[in-house]
Amino acid sequence: MLEKQGQLLRGVAAPILIDNLDTDQIMPKQFLRIITKQGLDRGVLYDLRFHPDGSERKEFILNQDGFRAAKFIIGGPNFGCGSSREHAVWGLQQLGIEAVIAPSFGEIFFGNALNNRLLLIVLPQEQIDALLQDLASGHHELEIDLHACAVRSATQDFRFPLAERHRKMIVDGLDMVGATLQMLPAITEFEQGYRARHPWADALR
User: Fold this and answer.
1) Contact 79, 109 (CB under 8 A)
2) Cα-atom radius of gyration of the chain, to the nearest Å?
3) Any domain includes 69
4) Are residues 66 and 157 in the same domain?
5) Cα 125 to Cα 151: distance, rounded to the nearest angstrom
6) Is residue 16 part of a domain?
7) Which of 111-115, 136-140, 169-173, 198-202 has the lowest mean pLDDT?
8) Are 33 and 120 in a shared domain?
9) Would you state the pLDDT for residue 131?
C-alpha cells in the first residue's frame, strides 16, 4: 500500500524491463475511443497483461502475487516513446502507478506525465541495476522522498533531478490549471501594468 507522509511515498516496485516501451504498447489504440478518462486502467499494457481472449498472462509481472498493487514501475531506456497520446499517462495513474523509474523517457511522454502529476525519475543504468538487485533479493518496496528528491531501496539511496515546479505540483496535488491559478496575483499585476503602459490596447478588444 502506498503511504503518503507529507513528501514521502512508499510502495512496491515492479520491473518492466522493455527497451523503447512505447505509448501504443502502454495504451493500445482500441482504448482511445472514450468520452471521459474513466476505465483506462483496463487498457494499460493490455497485450502484455492479457491473452487475446481476455484472460491474464500469468507470467507478466503485474499479474503476479506481490506485484498486483505495485505503485512504482522500473522501466527500460526510452520508456514512453512513440505517439503523444496522453491516455497512456492517465491509464497508468488509474492503475495505481505513482512513479516510473527509468534511464530515459520519450520526450513528449515525459512532459505529459509530469504535467499530470505522474512522477518520472531518471537514474543512470548502474543505479537502476542496483535497485533491481534489491528487488531480486526479495525487497520489493521502494521509498521516494520528494523533499530530498531521493529513491531508497533496502540498501541504496540515490538522488534524482526534479524541477521545483513539478515537485510542488506532485506534492500539492495540482494540475497545470491549478499551478497556473497559484500565480493569479502575478498575472493580474502584469495585466494591469500592461494596460497602463498600453492603454490603446483596450480599444482593440
Assistant:
1) yes
2) 20
3) yes
4) yes
5) 14
6) yes
7) 198-202
8) yes
9) 97
Degrees to nearest 5, angle at CA 46 with 127 and 91: 70
* 192 and 104 in a common domain: no
- How many residues are listed for the chain in this entry? 205
* Cβ neighbours for 53, distance < 8 A, ≥ 6 positions apart: none
* Whether residue 114 has pLDDT greater than 70: yes
Number of H helices, E strands in the chain: 8, 8
Residue in 147, 149, 148 with CA at minimum distance from that of residue 160:
149
Residue 65 DSSP symbol: T
Residues with Cβ within 8 Å of residue 138, at least 6 apart in sequence: none
Cell triple for 141: 518496496
Residue whose cell numbers read 499517462: 89
User: Cα–chain-centroid distance for residue 71?
Assistant: 10
Pair 114, 201 in one domain? no
**Please, which residues bridge with residue 111 across strands?**
none
Domain around 188: 175-205
